[in-house]
Write a structure and sequence with these properties.
Blueprint: H1 2-11, E1 16-18, H2 20-45, H3 50-84, E2 89-91, H4 98-115, H5 121-154
Antiparallel strand pairs: 1-2
């Protein structure tokens, strides 16, 4: 019984927001992460020849679009559906699951490890740009959902 009281007591200190703001928060996280990856990848792209820049740049765009369509679009939709099922006010960090936070930590760790490895940076251009592109595309769906829900609330 004391544990239940402790949990309820702790909930008072967890900041909450109206549910539709979780879409904007998820979009911002994906935008920031995708932007960082694309900026890094683009910096390393300049290590290639002009023709190499064009080829790797275009290849990154194509792979990012395909990766989003056949993989990450499902992740985005699951998060959108999950957020819709939440109460009107939800914890500010609930825009992703615990598993999502573990994935974020894992991806950051892998990124730091790759960046500090002996692998030439121009080899990292493609995976960084692709992952960044996928995240940026996904962020658009979160923003769209935020505006759709916010507009419905005003109507």
């Amino acid at each position: 019984m004391a544990e239940i009281k402790n949990i309820n007591f702790m909930r008072k200190f967890i900041p909450t927001v109206r549910r539709h703001y979780l879409f904007a928060l998820a979009g911002m996280l994906w935008t920031i992460a995708g932007g960082i990856l694309c900026v890094r990848g683009t910096m390393w792209l300049q290590l290639l020849s002009p023709l190499g820049e064009i080829i790797v740049g275009l290849l990154s765009l194509v792979i990012a679009a395909v990766g989003y369509l056949y993989g990450f679009s499902k992740v985005v939709q699951k998060n959108i559906d999950r957020i819709h099922q939440m109460p009107e006010r939800a914890a500010i960090f609930a825009f992703t699951t615990v598993r999502g936070y573990v994935m974020i930590a894992l991806m950051i760790t892998i990124g730091i490890t790759l960046r500090h490895s002996t692998i030439p940076k121009y080899y990292l251009t493609l995976p960084y740009d692709v992952m960044g592109g996928v995240l940026l595309i996904g962020s658009i769906r979160f923003y769209r959902q935020f505006f759709v829900v916010a507009w419905q609330k005003e109507s």
